[in-house]
Amino acid sequence: MAFDGITVAAVTEELSTALTGGRITKIAQPETDELLLTIKTTDGANRLYISASASLPLIYLTDENKPSPMTAPNFCMLLRKHIGNGRIIQVSQPGLERIIHIDIEHLDELGDLCRKKLIVEIMGKHSNIIFCDDKNKIIDSIKHVNAQMSSVREVLPGREYFIPDTMAKQDPLTIGQEAFIEALTGRPMPLGKAVYTSFTGISPVAAEEILSLAGLESGMTAKDLSPDTLAHLYRQFSYYMEQIVHRSFHPVIYYDKNAPKEFCALPLSHYTRYTSREFDSISQVLKNYYATRNTLTRIRQKSTDLRHVVQTALERNRKKHDLQSRQLKDTENREKYKIYGELINIYGYGLPAGSKELNALNYYTDQEITIPLDPTLTPQENSQKYFAKYNKQKRTFEALTELIRATGDDIRYLESISNALDIAMNEADLAQIKEELIQSGYIRRKYTKKKVKLTSRPMHYISSDGYHMYVGKNNLQNDELTFSFASGNDWWFHAKSAPGSHVIVKSGGAELPDRVFEEAGRLAAYYSKSRGSDKVEIDYVEKKHVKKPNGAKPGFVVYYTNYSLVIDSDISALQAVSE
Question: 390-418: b or e for each residue (b if 16 or more CB lie within 10 Å)?
Answer without folding.
Answer: beebeeebeebeeebeebeebbbbbbbbb
